[in-house]
Write a structure and sequence with these properties.
- The protein has 22 residues and is mainly α.
- 82% of the residues lie in helices and 0% in strands.
- It is elongated, with a radius of gyration of 7 Å.
């Protein structure tokens, strides 16, 4: 989980990474 992505939007990033399975 990249800090910049998390800072951008933790909800969106989390959902995206979860979908990817990361």
């Amino acid at each position: 989980l990249l800090t910049k992505d998390y800072s951008y939007d933790q909800k969106f990033t989390f959902s995206t990474h979860s979908a990817v399975g990361l």
